[in-house]
Amino acid sequence: MAVAMAACSLGLHLTPDNNNNNCFAPILKTTSFYDTNKPCLTLHKTRLSSSAITVIPRATAVSNVEDGNQSVADIVPTPVVIIDQDSDPDATVVEITFGDRLGALLDTMNALKNLGLNVVKANVYLDSSGKHNKFSITKADTGRKVEDPELLEAIRLTILNNMITYHPESSEQLALGAAFGLVPPKEQVDVDIATHLTVTDDGLERSLFYVETADRPGLLVDLVKGITDINIAVESGEFDTEGLLAKAKFHVSYNGKAIIKPLQQVLVNSLRYFLTRPSTEESSF
């Protein structure tokens, strides 16, 4: 399902450490927390506890098959979750679509509150792709939008977990169904084929880095870390979950300027290797 990628932006403002003028310093093999009370984002050697993600017991599968024939209701739409930091300067906007199957999603709003978030506004609209549920979210302690990549990933996983729990038929449509769901996806995405990376100019001061790849838990945080590890600043970004795929778009820069062609190639090669390299068992060394 095609979804407009301009719909969501992470609103990150990460810059590499350089003579202490910038406070982002990557730490290898550590997922990070970012302190938004400082002028820029500071990396701490802590990580979001897995208990912050609301995990609900798996639900029983639902079948709509009548008299051996598949009904129209059994045509399962592609679940879509969009995290949008562009449309509202004061809140993180999350949009959830699953055809016309979603209700009021009060359970999802309660799960987000358990992450230390406030749902300050919610609305629903309809179009040809189905019912779109939109929430405006702020951090409960600051009243500001969420800028911590790890907390944004926790929001994403919480929403998908709730979708799988209350709509178990979505499990086969989501890459995360293998981890959370009753039934894993029937098809597995070939990450080498699914991964597409491009960099284009977006004015004189920044470039646009587009990523499409197979979805997996923790991907959002890993992408941000992979970019900043090569001293490229992430000024803003967006992240969409579309069934088995994840699509991200980041506004990036180097020393306050658009990325030159040689560095664009370094960025693409680095992230492609990170996303598609085969896993190796420790026992093989």
Spatial order of the strands in the main sheet? Answer: 5-6-4-3-9-10-8-7
Sum up the overall morphology in one term. Answer: globular
- Annotation, overall tally of beta strands: 10
Mean pLDDT: 76
User: How many H/I helical runs?
Assistant: 6
Strand content: 15-25%
Structural class: alpha+beta
Distance between the termini: 42 Å
What is the N-to-C order of secondary-structure elements (H for helix, E for strand)?
EEEEHEEHHHEEHEEH
Q: What value does the Rg take, in angstroms?
A: 19 Å
Biggest sheet character:
8 strands, antiparallel
The percentage helix is 10-25%
User: Which consecutive residue ranges, at least 5 long each, have pLDDT under 50?
Assistant: 1-72, 280-285
Descriptive overview:
The chain is an alpha+beta fold and 285 residues long. The chain is 21% helix and 24% strand. A hairpin with a 2-residue loop joins strand 9 (233-242) and strand 10. Helix 1 (106-113) packs antiparallel against helix 2.
Offer a concise description of the structure.
The chain contains 6 helices and 10 strands, in the order ββββαββαααββαββα. It has helices at 106-113, 149-166, 177-180, 191-194, 219-228, 261-276, and strands spanning 33-34, 43-44, 80-84, 92-97, 117-127, 130-139, 196-201, 207-214, 233-242, 245-253.
